[in-house]
């Protein structure tokens, strides 16, 4: 199914988070109108997934939301809609409106479930409010998603892991989607001022990849669906990052850590059989996977390599 993403950078956001500059992240700054969506949707044949990302779609005025939703379904052909939005902008009234359209998923910008971290980042809500919004989505039959971050001011590895356990408690045996994003220091943000003044230092790439890898490993075992790890690389993002764990292949680095965690957990002494498509995760990036498994198991990279076998 063809995916058509539309970004609303910081549009209608109820708070300005200290790390946020979505214009830099997405490379988009112009205002999107419903007619832009309609033209794009009608230029593509067959089913498509229309994605309203960034900003806070459900914080829009109901008439504006309706205009965008009508544009999204104007071509028919079995299209569906995915929405990311702010946890404070979920209500029965909003969901009553969305139920009239083929909304397949609602992702919330959770960020963290640590109240101190949320306050430091100026998110404007508490963990309790996030969990209430997610419960409401599930009660109303919507597939929920949680967009989490790592490396935030005041955030620890333990805090990140605890977020997953708290989300698992409310989802039970149901599905919930997860996206993991690293916190980067972007120009023109309050976080940039903290970093420039020496009051805060972001984690390094290796630390971030390890934390994200542990989260992926745990999330899979808890029954979450992992949609993405790492930010989509754009020229504006590359130019606008001042500091932090910026790497164009952060998702792969995290997947390497997650695979190493899985192999060492399932069969600590090896040998391991891997599908051929996963071998690059172990041998790529300068043999990072071999080094990671070597570190976890306390043996040499050469010994790890000898215990790996693959099938087509």
Detailed description of the structure:
By secondary structure, the protein is α/β, with parallel strands linked by helices. The protein has a single domain, classed as TIM Barrel (Alpha-Beta Barrel). It is 45% helix and 19% strand. The chain contains 13 helices and eleven strands. Helix 2 runs parallel beside helix 3, helix 7 runs parallel beside helix 9 and helix 11 packs across helix 12. The longest helix is centred in the last third of the chain and has 22 residues. The two termini are 27 Å apart. The mean pLDDT is 91.
List the helices and strands and how they pair.
Layout: E1 2-7, H1 22-26, H2 34-42, E2 48-53, H3 62-72, E3 80-85, H4 92-98, E4 103-111, H5 115-120, H6 127-139, E5 144-150, H7 157-171, E6 177-182, E7 185-186, H8 190-196, H9 205-221, E8 225-229, H10 235-240, E9 241-243, H11 250-266, E10 272-275, H12 276-297, H13 301-306, E11 308-311
Parallel strand pairs: 1-2, 2-3, 3-4, 4-5, 5-6, 6-8, 10-11
Antiparallel strand pairs: 7-9
**Uncertain runs:** none
- Percent of residues in helical segments? 40-55%
CATH superfamily: Aldolase class I
* Order of helical and strand elements: EHHEHEHEHHEHEEHHEHEHEHHE
What would you call the structural class?
alpha/beta
Major sheet: size, sense and barrel closure?
7 strands, parallel
CATH class: Alpha Beta
- The total of beta strands comes to 11
Q: Whole-Å distance between the termini?
A: 27 Å
Question: What's the gist of this structure?
Answer:
It is built from 13 helices and eleven strands. The chain has helices spanning 22-26, 34-42, 62-72, 92-98, 115-120, 127-139, 157-171, 190-196, 205-221, 235-240, 250-266, 276-297, 301-306, and strands at 2-7, 48-53, 80-85, 103-111, 144-150, 177-182, 185-186, 225-229, 241-243, 272-275, 308-311.
